[in-house]
Amino acid sequence: QDHYCVLGNPVEHSRSPWIHARFAELTGQTLHYGRQRIELGQFAAGIAALQAEGYKGCNITVPFKFEAAELAQHRSPRAQLAGAANVLSLRADGLHADNTDGIGLVKDIEDNAGRPLAGEDVLLIGAGGASAGVLGPLLEARPARLVVVNRTHSKAVDLVARHQALADRCGCRLEAPAIEALDGHYGVVINATASSLSGAEVPVPASVLRPGSLALDMMYGPAAQGFLNWAAAHGAQGRDGLGMLVEQAAEAFALWRGVRPPSAQVLAELRALL
Ligand code: ATR
User: Which residues are in the Quinate/shikimate 5-dehydrogenase/glutamyl-tRNA reductase domain (predicted)?
Assistant: First the structure.
């Protein structure tokens, strides 16, 4: 049977093995999916070991998504634009890097939460790896306007500059104002910062929300709670990152196996389990 795994540090609490095992069961695929912790500085060696053992692919999580994109001999356009990869396919002609985080987020918002992004005003908070991974696919969903804000303004400016040509092609107004200059209301607000983790305040004013706005934190579990509380307190519809997690996995599974798993069912099962 074919072998896959998730690589990261830490990786002990990753839900990916459970998700992929369930996908395999439900699609009748025979595969094994494990988890491997890699020490910092050992990423390339870890991948070489997987190749030697005949692994077919792996998912990459924190903090190796940048290294994964760099190490690969082949990069999909979206992995190239993100500068980060969460999926590696180990093929005879080398490593193929892809990034399904963004399409996973878009599918969760549009299909699971039922909120089409086309024509929408979207606010993306953060300009680190998590934001970089999703900005391209968000633009391709053709919102009318996408605003990126970040504590360190220059990083938002850089990220937006790198995506400006794509935004123009998609007919989306893409902007990176300083947080102090942020105004207006947004139908969809996405938190791609680690601010709740440290118990810090949500780094934007609540005036960005309007009643019924979708306010999504890319984290799940206790790490998302601060943001979800903030959303609820201001009349927004809160959503955690569990759906994005399942959808990015479904996209990876489809890439590897050529079969689309029933992601909505698996998301419902996982939610009931947690
Ligand atoms: P990741 O890969 O998870 O995105 P990262 O690249 O370190 O990790 O980026 C973390 C993001 O969270 C950044 O946008 C960071 O803001 P800075 O660029 O100013 O560092 C943001 N962040 C982390 N802690 C924060 C806090 N307490 N308040 C606001 N933003 C925070």
Answer: 116-195
Domain ranges, ordered by start, for the chain:
2-99+244-273, 115-240
In this structure, how many other beta carbons lie within 10 angstroms of the beta carbon of residue 134?
Answer: 25
Cβ neighbours, 10 Å, residue 56:
16
Kindly state if the Cβ of 128 falls inside 6 Å of ligand 1. Answer: yes
Ligand 1 center–CA 78 separation, angstroms: 22
Q: Return the CATH fold of 115-240.
A: Rossmann fold (3.40.50)
Nearest to 112 by CA among 253, 273, 255, 250: 250
Structure ipTM = 0.96
The whole-angstrom separation of Cα 113 and Cα 235 is 16
**Ligand 1: does its nearest atom lie under 6 Å from the Cβ of 195?**
yes
pLDDT at 198 (0 to 100): 73
